[in-house]
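From the shared-data thread, chain only:
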Amino acid sequence: MGTVRSGRPRTRRVGLLAVQGATLIVAALFLAAGIAGFIPGLTNHLDQLQWQGERSRAQLFGVFDISVVHNLVHLVFGVAGLILARTYARARTYLIGGGFVFLGLWLYSLLSDAPDRALPLNNADNWLHLSVGVVMILLGLTLAGSKVPTGAEGEILIPPE
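Structure, as tokens:
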């Protein structure tokens, strides 16, 4: 703790680690996608939005097939990210684990052509899920290199234990 000229103690403010910041951004994007799926204008054919499955004809931005369950999954994933961003380990787990979930969803969509799938998935969804999965894993691996927060000029804000 340093002191200011007035003699009052000054506490250092420590920001988020990079992996936590990335988790918050990813979570916010999932929340935005989940909310957008219920907004007319952003979602084409909103009147044809079904609870689940391939029967839903609604499309987010006229490109991505969606359903109510699909939107709710995005919302839950976003809330989970906001909660898990509080610590280094949980934020990293969210990014890497979530990335593998999206890669699994991509593989499931490629390998399954059953018309009774719970989530409506088209080619655009497949490319998006592949991209999101890869980016999340890369963020979790590359931004988690240091648990020691540093200032703008590289000074260590909290000494490692």
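Helices lie at 18-36, 68-84, 88-111, 123-142.
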